[in-house]
Amino acid sequence: MTPNDIDFSCTGCGRCCHDLRIALTVAEAAAWLQRGGRVELLCDAILWPVEPAPGDAFAAYKRARSSPALSGTLPIRVTILLTTSHAGPCPNLRDGMRCGIYDERPLVCRIYPAEVNPFVPLTPDGKQCPSDAWQHAPLMRSGTIVDARTRDAIARASAASEAETPLRTRLAAALAIDTAAVANEGFAIHAPPAGALLAALHALGDARGAA
Predict the structure, then answer these.
(1) Looking at residues 78-105, what average pLDDT do you find?
(2) Residue 99 sits in which domain range?
(3) Within a 10 A sphere around the Cβ of 121, how many other Cβ atoms?
(4) What residues contact residue 123 under an 8 Å CB cut-off, 6+ apart?
(5) Mean pLDDT of 16-23
(6) What are the angstrom distances between the C-alpha of 78 and each of 60, 120, 158, 181?
(7) Total domains, the chain
(8) 91 Cβ contact list (under 8 Å, min separation 6)
(9) I want to staple 198 with a disulfide (CB 3.0 to 4.6 A). Which of 33, 62, 66, 125 is the partner?
(10) By three-state DSSP, how is residue 205 classified?
(11) Is 1 part of a structural domain of the chain?
């Protein structure tokens, strides 16, 4: 195997179900809250004084998943993520390291250990999976994900992260969230009360349905 050719077969060890932060779509966040889970909003901002060159793929990816704003007089773009985090085991983890919401698990869980962001390389050493997981079934060839289910989940997660950008911006405004960290230096983490967040998410859904 080379760094661009990776095999993977899940062993069911459950390590990826412990002590992780999981990005969620709008619908996944609402479902997570309805199950009694915790959801946070992570916000960062990057200076955006001019539009990037048309061929700058990384900037285009960032732009599609962020919203314009001003910090004083400085033009910026703000990225907002919906996430859940847990210390120790995921609240949906059952005996025998079985997922209690397997059929409804978030897209990020379906994608792991692959990456949603095409600019983040998949590095087995950076994952929690045991060494014997990195064998048997082809996951990546020549730097491209070849497992059909993983590829489909990545496409769906990527499309949602872009399409739902305006919704996440409206959600933050509805919750009076107006603070972001400087990009690449961390995130401002906002943890509104679960009831208020769920109500705001439902209001987004109602507005989408009426549009």
Answers:
(1) 96
(2) 6-210
(3) 12
(4) 3
(5) 94
(6) 14, 20, 17, 9
(7) 1
(8) 35, 36, 37
(9) 33
(10) helix
(11) no
